[in-house]
Design goal:
homodimer; alpha/beta; Aspartate Aminotransferase, domain 1; three-stranded antiparallel beta sheet; 12 strands
Amino acid sequence: MRFAPLPAGLPASVPFVGPETLERQRGAPFAARLGANESAFGPSPLAARAMREAVGQVWKYGDAPSFDLTHALADHHRMSPANIMVGEGIDGLLGTLVRLMIAPGDAVVTSDGAYPTFNYHVAGFGGVLHKVPYRNDAEDPEALLDRAHATGARLIYLANPDNPMGSWHDGPVITAMLDRLPDDCLLVLDQAYAEFAPASAIPDIAADDPRVIRMRTFSKAYGLAGARIGYALGAPDLIAGFDRIRNHFGVNRLAQAGALAALADQGWLAHVVAEVATARDRIAAIGAANGLTALPSATNFVALDTHRGGAFARTLIAALAQHGVFARMPGVTPLDRCIRISCAPLHELDVFEDVLPRALSDLATR
Amino acid sequence: MRFAPLPAGLPASVPFVGPETLERQRGAPFAARLGANESAFGPSPLAARAMREAVGQVWKYGDAPSFDLTHALADHHRMSPANIMVGEGIDGLLGTLVRLMIAPGDAVVTSDGAYPTFNYHVAGFGGVLHKVPYRNDAEDPEALLDRAHATGARLIYLANPDNPMGSWHDGPVITAMLDRLPDDCLLVLDQAYAEFAPASAIPDIAADDPRVIRMRTFSKAYGLAGARIGYALGAPDLIAGFDRIRNHFGVNRLAQAGALAALADQGWLAHVVAEVATARDRIAAIGAANGLTALPSATNFVALDTHRGGAFARTLIAALAQHGVFARMPGVTPLDRCIRISCAPLHELDVFEDVLPRALSDLATR
């Protein structure tokens, strides 16, 4: 089978192995699903009801412009609908954005250890990735900007708050980045975890600012990961560009209904954010009781520093899995001294509390 | 905003304007939704129940390989799971396929008037489209093959049964095409309407045949258009290629549950196919009573020949919309002498029966 030259040169790899795949490999379900930063607190009950009710209309294609949701988001963010593009989650939107902006050979800058799916899309469209190290377990705006200037990058990727470390920058740090961006370079600001962050971490950016596109999702705080729906905020020209290449009828109709109802229930969102804060503290306490140190987090997960190297942490992740706990960890040194534990209801964290010392004990006796 | 050269050269157009958009433009809902070949007969009640139940798990990302559904499809089609790729509907799968196979400048052959979304994807990845005319209101295998040989095409698109005309070729015509395919050219056999077709229209193709990829969907006979789920059948090397570029977690979790339950309820499928046959006859009778002639159809829609030109048919579509009936029509001459009416429950066809003579009367008095 002869593929086109670009995909012919790509590996047949997958950025993430999902928990169901791991469960099939181990032959048993996980007792605690703490690896994908999903929200086991679930979506708003109103969103769940809206989705169940929408099943009666699932024989209809979804509304291509996601009109109702786009307008509700415009109200929510005090923007124009022309600033908003609804898509199949941030993963889907990042793929469309990279395709829109990057020709083969174009430079793209990100942090070494940041979101692998973004890198996957860049490689998939022939972009050349340049990676700068994290600094103090946070993405490093100065280094990203310097590398972008040095390489003539067309995109800089920055997640704020960050995944996988949970760290964050204050809003003015982000807006200052915009003033130092190279000409013709767009900041891709991944705000998947924004709802969990302090207000000070949300930069004040004009809706029509052409220097940045912001990615938001219903997969995290809104609890709709399986629905595959998110949105981009950006200048109208950029947002309109998506219509040149996107799969117009690609958003699931139930997801549209669920997201609309979820957005309207900000009370549930506040409830989840509070539960997540409680869970973060609990994860930190469980870690501390076992010699692991929680890094500060503005997300729905906690990076626990093992104070050992990546090999140790990788073995610990495997041992946790053997004991029924699905977790993940950063992929590169020095971040990979940590394991990453998603916030979850307390009964799942009870499992983690039970399993962590046993997994550590397994490692000690090897 | 400077886009990459390829998307910069694309129009900001949309292959289809959806019915909700038209409803917003006209300021009222349609009384009959007969334009998108959806199935108003709905999905299996068991599929609907499975989706409602899956809402409780929607906080989880879907299973990236769609393992359960892929294995059920393998059983259903008596193939290996390695022959099957589940994706976000045929639209999504076609986009991924074109990206996998077509480099800028590569030739692709289709029929003039065939599925616009395929053409949209080809243009979107820089392919050069070559179109051959329909012959007797059917796609023309010989002309497609001749053009493919002449242009060195890498893909030939053929829908069997065809959309928008509803015509079909017998299976042996398709398998004979495979023997005449140019080297290095893949037949894209769109079987979106296969479940409505006579068994004789389904070609007998070996699962591992590397010359063809078949596209199937849950959007039509299975009644799950809004769920965005379909699948490709092909040789393992080709199917594995999708994993190089696809959005691995892009399939909605509720869609996976719904499709699995829908596939298991072949009794409901048979019920829908029978209802569609009844509706086809009814549409033909309504057409005949108004001087329009139904073309034979192996799909869930009927092309009604107006015996006038495209300008007349376009005006008729607009008049039908004014009277509350959403329908579409072929885009090119001579197919555009027809309007295309989707099969639907009889109460919706009652609306069509009431409106068609009034719409025709509007045209006559202009």
